[in-house]
Amino acid sequence: MYIEGFSTVAPLHDFVMNFIHLGVIIPFVLVNIALVYFIVKYRRRGPNDVTSRVEHNSTIEVVWTVIPSLVCLAMFVLGIEVFDGQRTVPENAVDIQVTAKQWAWEFQYPAALKKDPDSRAALKSYNQLFLKAEEPVRLIMKATDVLHSFFVPAFRVKEDVVPGMYTYVTFTPLSPQKEKGKDRVEFDIFCTEYCGKDHSYMLAKAHVLEPAVYESELGKIEEEASNVTPEVGQSIWQSNCRSCHSIDGSAVVGPSFKGLYGSARQLESGESVTADENYITESVLNPNAKVAKGFPPVMPPQDYSEAQIQSIIEYMKTLQ
Ligand code: CUA
Q1: What single-letter DSSP state applies at residue 88?
Q2: Which of 51, 127, 148, 275 is the most buried (most CB within 10 A)?
Q3: pLDDT in tens, 154-184
Q4: Helix/strand/coil percent split, the chain, to 5
Q5: Euclidean distance between the first and final Cα of the chain, in Å?
Q6: Which residue's alpha carbon is nearest to atom 1 within ligand 1?
Q7: CB distance 245 to ligand 1 below 6 Å
Q8: What is the pLDDT of residues 225-265, one digit of tens each?
Q9: CB distance 148 to ligand 1 below 6 Å
Q10: Which atom of ligand 1 is nearest to the CA of 100?
């Protein structure tokens, strides 16, 4: 009846949903059948037809009071049980920081998971959430611009992501090995609150991985964070810049990346600068310091590592 569930709370969640649906639909149908039947059967047949006199019936009164009360009570108790499972954070839960922004998801993993404790680059992935099988997680979420909402149908979690405050979801993914005999499975993550032009593209993937695969994926992220290549720059552009910066020369929200590196830029202030490493780095970290002429000062500051910004610059160099 629902999309496949893949968290520990999913089976009970689905049972409660079915219970409430059926507990509402079945009485609705029965009552309406009886209603139509009685309307026809006891219709007024002529001017001399008198209404029959119906006395109080205690048995029926008790039945139709007690049974629905018990059903409603069961809905309440089961509902609280599921709600509790979705809001109580297990003690051993791993905290992942989630940042929602127009129109991408950023996931930052605990520094303790880094292989190289000396590296300063944060362990971050964009639009890809990596989760270890059977490990409880808490996603601590914030938004940098407008209201978004984090929704993973497979885990049965959904929560608004709000600028200026933190919200969370908690869940425990199942094991792909036990459930499907695979070492990884992926599920859709949606933004489910209208957040502007590209709301419908604000999608991500949740990957549930067996421990060995999980470690190798996080290892890859860590390596990428300190690797400087145009490919890394391109993947950053793909997941984070493309909704505002084209690579074909067309102006979207901000200037195109094409031909940007090394060019002379006219600024809103009337000055002119060369788009070199200094200018690009500043424009990533503090976008409003030097706003290009003809563009609105709307870009939020980005907290990329030095290596990541160098990768973006390397990628720009390929777009001449
Ligand atoms: Cu973010 Cu819709």
Answers
A1: P
A2: 148
A3: 999 999 999 999 999 999 999 988 888 889 9
A4: 40, 20, 40
A5: 52
A6: 148
A7: no
A8: 777 888 888 888 887 788 788 888 888 888 888 888 888 88
A9: yes
A10: 1
Q: Using a 6 Å cutoff on CB, does residue 204 contact ligand 1?
A: no
Using CA atoms in the order 68, 70, 71, 73, what is the torsion angle rounded to 10 degrees? 120
pTM to 2 decimal places? 0.75
Q: Per the structure block, which two tokens stand in for 157?
A: 């979690």
Q: Please give the DSSP secondary-structure letter assigned to residue 244.
A: T
Q: Which two tokens stand for residue 298?
A: 């709307």
Closest CA to 133 of 183, 217, 216, 208: 208
Nearest to 128 by CA among 149, 106, 113, 143: 106
Asked, as a colleague might, if the bond just before 103 is cis with ω within 30 of 0, I would say yes
Distances (CA, A) of 310 to 164, 173, 281, 290: 30, 36, 8, 19
Give the separation between CA 23 and CA 67, rounded to whole angstroms. Answer: 11
Give the number of residues written for the chain. 320
For 69, residues 6+ apart whose C-beta sits below 8 A from its C-beta are none
Instruction: Decide if 280 contacts 273 (C-beta within 8 A).
Output: no
